[in-house]
Amino acid sequence: MAVTVAHIPEKIRRQTSWTATLRGYLFILPVVLGLIIWTFGPMVASAYYSFTDYKIIFPAGFVGAKNYINLFTRDKQFINSLSVTIRYAIMFVALGQVTCLALAVLLTQKVRGMDFFRTFFYLPIIVPYVASSVLWKYLYNKEFGPIDGFLELLGLPAVNWLGSQDTVLLALVLMSVWSSATTTIIYVAGLQHIPEELLDAAKIDGGNGVQRFIYVTMPMLSPTIFFNVVTAVIGAFQFFTPAFIMTEGGPAKATYFYNYNLYEKAFKWLEMGYASAMAWVLFAIILFLTFLIFRSSPLWVYYDGEVR
Amino acid sequence: MGLLRWRSALKIRSSVRSAVSGAYQRPGLRMEMVRKAAIYGLLILGVGVFMLPLIVMVSTSLKSFTEINSYPPSFLPKKLIFTNYAEALVYRDTMFPRWTFNTIFIIGAILPGVVISSSLCAYGFARMTFPGRDLWFMLVLGSIMLPPQVTLIPLYILFYKIGWLNTFAPLIIPAWFGGGAINIFLLRQFYMQIPRELDEAAIIDGAGFMTIWWRIYVPLGRPALISVALLTILGNWNDFFGPLMYLNTPDNYTLALGLNAFRNYFPLLPRTDYLMAIATLMVLPMILMFLLAQRYIVQGFVTSGLKG
Fold this sequence. Notes:
The complex is a heterodimer.
Chain A: H1 2-14, H2 18-49, H3 66-73, H4 76-107, H5 114-122, H6 129-139, H7 146-153, H8 168-178, H9 181-193, H10 196-204, H11 209-238, H12 241-247, H13 258-267, H14 272-300
Chain B: H1 2-11, H2 13-24, H3 29-61, H4 65-68, H5 83-89, H6 96-127, H7 133-145, H8 149-161, H9 169-172, H10 181-192, H11 196-204, H12 209-220, H13 222-238, H14 241-246, H15 255-263, H16 272-306
């Protein structure tokens, strides 16, 4: 009996007749259609628009690479928004990864009641960006905000968090770090995947806590760090809602993020062609950065089973 | 390098461990107590810092308007003003009940589409064999990398031309086409772990693939499906950009748009008490959902994150 059971499925598995193919495509049909209608079709259209001066009310006229050339040579606002976004990304990646990793180390300590504590650290992920933007705008308020109120109680000078070009990016980074519990969650899972025996072995060898972290935890965790850094960089280039609600790109365009700039170009000034070019440049930047991080990964990402 | 050394130490671990554990693991009971106290101290401090914004939100929502705008700032309300909530909900021509209904309606229309279509596609990718399957799966995964801005403008123009602007259709219909690449990925990961023997036994019993999907994969995949459903609810309750793009008359707003519009009712001196009351009401259902189903939500983030 066991023999027959093992043999029939083997036949079924190898079956690649047209009915099997059809059946397979029927199952994945929703996403195949979805990709064609909502992704590939629009991608082609968007690539075409990016070479035109399309403005929704007028028919599109072909302008060649003019949009792309103008972006880099004439559009000071584009350069500014690129620089704002990159500065934000660097601060967000640095501060966010260090904070989330430290939190994850804390949250994987073996003490009673840890599940209870984790709940509170994870809770900010469920706060909608609109609500947290409204909330943090109040927290950062110069006249009545609790943060400055607290600083003054301590006798420290109040900070014009959102009103000053020097602090506004940091203010947004701090708020984003507060809402990045997803990153913490992924680090916690990564830490839990590190085999206990490795750390035990290190302990027997006399490795102290810091050594164990540097020589065992970090290499074992590096694929997770890699993933989180890539996600954070991509996230920085998608950053929109807080800038839209809290600062409206200001002061003096200091938070005029790439995505915000693109949104206004397309839907305030209706320069659909130009905005499409911006979208493709954004895609190219994200691909390039991911490629850079990916290329650098052999230097610092350790995959299990790899021999050095 | 250090890692390799510790790995070789691993081999003798099992024999040595029992012998040494008494010797090396006790740097003294007092040290252990200090360590635990430090961990709990840090945990409590962290919870305080992370919960503070939400505590301030709720606390401010219950303060009187004069108390909010007086100096020095108070942490907890001197007198609880619950009427803030009632007043905020019916403030002038706002439509919070309507906006809440719209949000729930949209989620209700999206949810079955996401759950059914992502599950079908995930099953197809996980368990059927046909030419082109891996290519399409790569395309699905690749589409996660594509910044949504690239397709945004053509989709907007498409929805404009077919008369879908200022309707819920652009938010609902695309969700029925595969339900999102990440969800397909998440479910596929889960389905791959279901033993193939179950399918094979069912095939021998004469079951078709639809039956196998419905009778085996849907019930056994329930934890993953719940994760997908909860993340979908969370994502759409919180979504700001989608509604901002496609909905433009107040009667069609979602809660996120409504809260944003509510800010503009107070161009000079914001009624922070009202804003915080609405923000609290918007966050509250998600907090409840998180507290009730934290495991599923966290697992959803982990699966879509870790193995990506």
